[in-house]
Design a protein that fits this description.
The chain is α+β, with helices and mostly antiparallel strands. The chain contains 9 helices and 20 strands. The chain has 2 domains: 227 residues, Rossmann fold (3-Layer(aba) Sandwich), CATH 3.40.50.300; 116 residues, Nucleic acid-binding proteins (OB fold (Dihydrolipoamide Acetyltransferase, E2P)), CATH 2.40.50.140.
Length: 365
Amino acid sequence: MAQIKLENINKIYDNGFHAVHDFNLEIKDNEFIIMVGPSGCGKSTTLRMIAGIESISGGTLTIDGKVCNGLKPHDRGISMVFQSYALYPTMTVYDNLAFGLRLAGFDEDEIEVRVKEVSEILGIQSYLARKPKALSGGQQQRVALGRALIRHAKVFLMDEPLSNLDAIQRVNMRSEIRRIHNTVGATTIYVTHDQIEAMTMADRIVVMKDGYIQQIGTPKELYFKPVNMFVAGFIGDPQMNFIYGKVEGEKFIAKDGSVIELKGFNSKILENASKKEEVVIGFRPECCAVEKIKDAKQFESAMNVEVSEMLGDTLNIYGYLGKNHMVVRTNPFTKYTVGEDLKFYVNYDHVVFFDAKTEYIINED
């Protein structure tokens, strides 16, 4: 178990590229933190600085109160799981698990106890005599996790560990990794570009873009209270609907002239939004109801249907509100006609405004 603190962490490469800017984060003991963002946002670089694989250009990294900037990786009390499983192909699963302990000088009795313990946690007892080529991708991933667990490290670092698995294996391994985390009780920092992994696994999520932290919060906080358009658009699939325009009184007037009536909407937010040169109204596809919401403050509009996606339990309908592309997520029994208008309603509680210039949310204060 470990508490980790990153204070004003920066990474600047020899060529002058500034990969990570003033990264600040406090991670609690036994917390599961996920860093998420598009490729090149600095999340893996930050993870490698925590691991000691990359040097820290500026700032302070502490683990349990001990400054670790200059410590070698094996002195930091961490284990790391990479995107590539990197199992030794000529060794059995047992020997792959035991290899690191043997190098560290553990006796065989202790190694056997630890291999048994880890194999039971991961459910790979029956694979111990096999070699990696006889295992599926998911089984190999369990062995790679086992090599990290067997060291009894207080911090686990995971860099896109599920990216080589197929869709079904990824779903299964998401719950497995979370279960293992709860069983072992170590502090875990996990990097992914997949926002679904982040939403389903994390205690807290760190959203990054261009080397900067955009927002830190629980999955629910990021989803319902995004601080800016990047977070609002990155978290959620399909992403939030954005329509550019202006607020005049209790009306939102889109750039193409489409009008959304907002009678009874939060007057302070509308007042603040009306002071901006251009604003963006945002609402999520699943917050669009195709039937009027009973006893709710809501706006009514209509989109011209272009195409749809049938997903079994849900239906995504794509189209245009005026010239604005948008999506409505609804039940699979919704009746619609391609080329015709589909009326929808959005509860005011699910509507947000952003400043089009700064892309940050407009609040009451």
